[in-house]
Amino acid sequence: MIEYHVPVLLNECIKGLNINPEGIIVDVTYGGGGHSKEILKQLTSGKLIAFDQDSDAHKNAINDNHFTLVESNFEHLKNQLRFAGAIPVDGILADLGVSSHQFDEASRGFSFRFDEAELDMRMDQQQSLSAKQIINTYTEAQLADLFFFYGELKNARKIAKAIIVKRAVKPIDTVGELKSCLLPFAPKFKDYKFFAQVFQALRIEVNNEMGALKALLEQSADVIKKGGRLVVISYHSLEDKLVKNYMNKGKFEGDTEKDFYGNEIKPFHPLNRKAIVPDAEEMTKNPRSRSAKLRIAEKI
Questions:
Q1: Please, what are the averages of pLDDT over each run of 10 residues along the chain (300 residues)?
Q2: Which of 24, 207, 219, 231 sits at 20 to 30 Å (Cα–Cα) from 171?
Q3: Using CA atoms, how far apart are residues 96 and 52, in angstroms rounded to an integer?
Q4: Helix H or strand E encompassing 6
């Protein structure tokens, strides 16, 4: 059994799912099973299907006849559910971001706390693309773009240039080597935030997080039954913007499309105008929850 994080906004998620005890619920980010265990308590003859592409998470699989754990990225949601004969479903839960286990396991390379760790950041440990490959093979323009768009770093071009110069002398393989290269760009007393943004950008690129999230949201509209719920927790503005726009408008950019009569064409109706955030007590007990934003929508 691997120790994962405490489930974030647990009660709010369960309430938001409005669980049908005889229905089918999908947890697309299983992790340590915190949310899934609570969902199972609400089911009688229903089913819970969980997804996780990280093989470590499968060491925490729940032994329950109502439970199935699929080793897959949630971007393959529709195909996997079709294969399981489980469409339509009553609700989908997604707790986005990186688990505490992944951050705390030095060998995974997700955290900038472990200087000796290799730059990895793969959630699916079977895939070939790693952070080390990105740092050592991407062009200067590619690096600048990913740090600007995914890390929201204004000095992205200078950061990219420094990496190109450093790797020309010796490959940048470890967390410590990357930090040493970029230390001159870290603002005084704000170096933690700076490196968090750098590592976020790399992690998003390695795992195609934005593409996978878009695929999940679009496919959720195809697999959730009318009146079913989509419940999503995001941890940074890039994710939250996609979730908010899709729930509100049925698309990621631009205005909601309308039919000939002026009726909005969108698959979901958002149930909370503002994102639900943890209260002070939860943030104190579980610091990981501090940046969490929960949005809930109902299938129209």
A1: 73 98 97 94 98 85 95 97 98 85 64 88 91 98 98 97 98 97 94 94 96 98 98 96 98 93 94 96 92 97
A2: 207
A3: 11
A4: none
Q: Is the peptide bond before 184 cis (omega within 30 degrees of 0)?
A: no
User: What pLDDT, on a 0 to 100 scale, did the predictor assign at position 288?
Assistant: 85
As a whole number of angstroms, the distance between CA 291 and CA 95 comes to: 12
What distance, in Å, lies between the first and last C-alpha atoms of the chain?
A: 40
Query: What would the DSSP string read from start to end of 222-266?
Result: HHEEEEEEEEEEE-SHHHHHHHHHHHHHSSSSSPPEE-TTS-EE-
- How far, in Å, CA of 33 to CA of 62, rounded? 8
Domain covering 125-206, topology:
DNA polymerase; domain 1 (1.10.150)
Contact 37, 62 (CB under 8 A): yes
Residue 3 has a pLDDT of: 52
Q: Where along the chain do its domains lie?
A: 10-100+209-299, 125-206
Q: How far is CA 34 from CA 47, 143, 198, in A?
A: 16, 36, 29
Provide the whole-model pTM.
0.92
Supply the pLDDT for residue 79: 98
Residue ranges of E strands in the chain: 24-27, 47-51, 67-70, 89-95, 224-234, 257-258, 264-265, 268-270, 293-299
The whole-angstrom separation of Cα 54 and Cα 71 is: 7
Between CA 14 and CA 27 the distance in angstroms is: 11
Task: For residue 292, give the nearest of 4, 6, 8 by alpha carbon.
Answer: 8
pLDDT number for residue 55: 80
